[in-house]
Amino acid sequence: MSAAPAPVEHTTHARLIVSTHRSALLRVTLHYRADDPLAVRMVFPAEYALEPDPLDDPADPYGDQYGDPADPYADLPAEPSPGPADGVEWVFARQLLAAGLDLPSGEGDVHVRPALGTRTVVELRSPEGVALLQFDRADLRRFLWHSYLAVPEGRELSHLDCDRALAELLA
């Protein structure tokens, strides 16, 4: 029996869209595991959870410390900055992420759609509110490409342990 492919982890930046004129740059980590072949995980810092608004900064009432709104990625550092050890995790279908790069996709809590230029928007809905995250499409494609190296598209079910998945559902 061959060893399972190594998990895929990709850290990138996203813009949390707060309003038409305000956004916050945050570090997001994307995860994919061959033992859970249908899902991707997106983890972002806990301080950006949809509870109190962490972006309300009395020292910056206009929210303009985030750079040029015409090019929201212009001020990205070369490497992601370190974040907290814990974070908010969303789990959704790998197929949803792939489809949303080209066409609006999703029902329920997660929607993915192309945006202007080379951007992709991931919309996360919860009872607390809606979060819009804007990614560079190339970063998402790179993550998906690595996930397809681990488990090729269409071969997910051959990696799925149905007994374990059922046991987890019933636990």
Could you explain the architecture of this structure?
The protein has 171 residues and is an alpha+beta fold. It is 18% helix and 34% strand. The chain contains three helices and seven strands; from the N terminus they run E-E-E-E-H-E-E-E-H-H. It has a seven-stranded antiparallel sheet with strand order 4-3-2-1-7-6-5. The chain is globular. About 19% of the residues have low confidence.
Quick overview:
The protein has helices at residues 94-100, 137-150, 162-170, and strands spanning 8-19, 22-32, 39-45, 87-93, 110-114, 119-126, 129-136. It is of the alpha+beta class.
Strand/helix succession = EEEEHEEEHH
* Class by SSE composition: alpha+beta
Q: What is the oligomer described by this structure?
A: single chain
Q: Can you tell me the overall shape?
A: globular
Task: Give the biggest sheet.
Answer: 7 strands, antiparallel
Average pLDDT reading: 77
Report the β-strand fraction as a percent range.
25-35%
Number of helical stretches of at least 4 residues:
3
Poorly predicted runs are 52-84
Secondary structure: number of strands: 7
| Major beta sheet, strand line-up | 4-3-2-1-7-6-5
Rg, rounded, reads 17 Å
Span between N and C termini?
28 Å
Give the fraction of residues assigned to helices. 10-25%
